[in-house]
Amino acid sequence: MGMEMNLLDGRAAVVTGSAQGIGLAIATVLARHGASVVVSDVNAEGAEQAAADLEAQGLKAVAVPCDVTDEAAVEALADACKSAFGSLDVLVNNAGITRDATMPKMTLEDFKKVLDVHLTGAWLGTRAAARIMREQRRGAIVNISSISGKAGNFGQTNYSSAKAGMIGLTKASARELARHQIRVNAIQPGPIRTAMTAAMPPEALQKMLDNIPLGRIGEPEDIANAALFLASDLSSFITGITVEVAGGRHM
């Protein structure tokens, strides 16, 4: 591991929804590049386990359980990172849920809940992190949106709305925070190999692959590597953009 491998030496990062899946992959890649990572999840046990696994690999991690829809909890999460590691340099707003149904079958509660976790959660996280990052005169915020926020998914009026909303949040907060040297960018993952896609019927999966020019499903690491780029100084002149990590789908 030469110098070029440690893009985040001395930095501290918070990743929400990082007990598993894409969030855990992001936390792992950031930690491998020298970041001290706060593994945060509404699943406290899962967060503890993930942080312990990272520590077992010789990486720096602590677990802080957090419900991203709880304003006080999100503020405390940002403070916990600062007190554990001395700074808060990177925030990845990754926490999310799905409550899929067509509109006639979707309850108002299921619509609001999905917006609350993805969009309100990302807003609360951005506001809390920026409070600390402003004093440091540096910081990078990465919002994990989705290609369904660009293309719209059947049965996901709630999820697609929330994920599109995160792009507007990214741009507006990038404008507000630029004068404090805080960058805000978004990633729109396409189909990624997770528990959710693993459960798909083979024919549905094949139909999806047919629409991906690069001819494969994405790996959680594909998203994590894009997050690493946006979190690091490699992207120091990049703010307010959306990176599609989708193998060319919906380009």
UniProtKB/TrEMBL annotation:
Pfam families: adh_short_C2. GO terms for molecular function: 3-oxoacyl-[acyl-carrier-protein] reductase (NADPH) activity. This is 3-oxoacyl-ACP reductase FabG. It is an enzyme of class 1 (oxidoreductase). SMART domains: PKS_KR. The keyword Oxidoreductase applies. Residues 11-195 form the Ketoreductase domain.
